[in-house]
Every structure is written in structure tokens, then in C-alpha cells.
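Example (one chain per record):
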Amino acid sequence: RPACVALAVASGTMAVWLWSASGSLGFSVAVEDIQDALPGRYQSEHFLIHYPADPDIARDIALIAEDHEFRLAQLVRDLGVEPPSRIDSYYFQSPEQKFQWMGARNVYMAKPWRREIYMNHQDFPHQVLRHEIAHVVAGEFGDPIFGVAAGRVLGIPLFFNVGLIEGTAVAADWPDHFDKALTPHQSVKAMQALGYAPPTHKLFSTGFLSFASGRSYTVAGSFLRFLLDEYGAQPLRSVYRNGGDFM
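Predicted structure:
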């Protein structure tokens, strides 16, 4: 019996230690763990940027914050909404650090319902920053619970429209330079000529996930940019809010 008691105490102690270290061990990471890993803080008008103890990033953090604010200003102008009062930007040193703390090495992410974006450092100007901020800005006119495009059943958001969620971010993050890549419109034209373009009506449903992401994002973004340019921001906001009812 003493051996059983000792084993129970040791097991309990180990369980308590594992739980207390769950963040650093990577199996139950809380936002507080990420904030501890990114101890730097920079407050701009609309952003609280959490950044690592890296001298190069610390040196350029004011420029990084200006890039955040500029991209936000572009988005609220194009989408016709007021900016969120505060967005938390978790700005990692590298894809590897981002992978360690949130599990996504080569993928950027936003949580509109928390008004958070998760980035890793790139040379100025950041090529993905506006896309991720767009998700948070779209949350201002999305579903009131999750801040995304979602169809409701009995008032409960059940049908998340990935085509609208990602297509709106692509449409809002429209290229403002043309030195390296085609615009989504030009890419869609090329895909149509080659017979690779997914049918638009299938993208604003679960069909979005049945095509290669590069094609789905591009065609959905091109269509929604056309809607934005041709009819203005209000119809785009309306179809986003109702989860995809274009009628």
C-alpha cells in the first residue's frame, strides 16, 4: 500500500507539472503563453503589436506599426466601415517560431472573433499583412458571434461560407503594384483560357474546399472584387453578413 500511495502522489505531481507546463511543451497553448514568447509591446492607434526580443524587429517596430495602420486605412476605405478599436497583432520572428506557438509554419491566420492576427516577420512592405487584417475588418459586418460569413439556422451560425471569407480578403487585398504578379482578374482570365477555372457558383459553398486553394482563392476574390468595384461596398457587406445569399 505505501508503494501505491507513493505512485499515486508521484503521478498526481507529474500531472500537475505537465498541466502547468502545457504551454511551453506545446500541447495546450494559451494566449498568455504566446504573449510571454513575444514580450515586446508596441501600441499604435488601432494595434497592439506583440513582438519577439529580436533587435532587428525592435529597431523597425515603428515602421512595422505604420505598415499595419496604412493597410488598415486602405481596408476601411474600400469596405466602407469604421476601424476596429483595437487589433492584437502577434508578430513572430520566423515561421519556425510561429509554428512552435500556434502550429502554423507557412500559413498566416486571423481570428476575427477575437480581433487578432498572427504573422511572422517579412521585409517591408509585408506581403500578407493586408489580407489578414481584412479578415478582422470584415468581422465588423460578419456574423456577430464569429465575425465571418456564415448562414444561420434558427439564429445559429452553422454554414460557414469559406469562399466568401477568403474571397473577401483577396478582394480587399487587391494588388497595388504590378511588377511581379498578375492581378486575380488576369489570373482568372488565364485559368478560363486553359479550362482550369472553378465554377463560381460552387465556390460560395463547401465546394470551395474541393478545388486547389490557389484557384479557389483567386476566382472567389476576383468575383467579389468585381462586385465591390461595380456595385460598391454595401452589397458586398450584405452578402457577407447573410452568409452568401446573393439574391
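Caption: Residues 51 and 57 are 8 Å apart (CA to CA).
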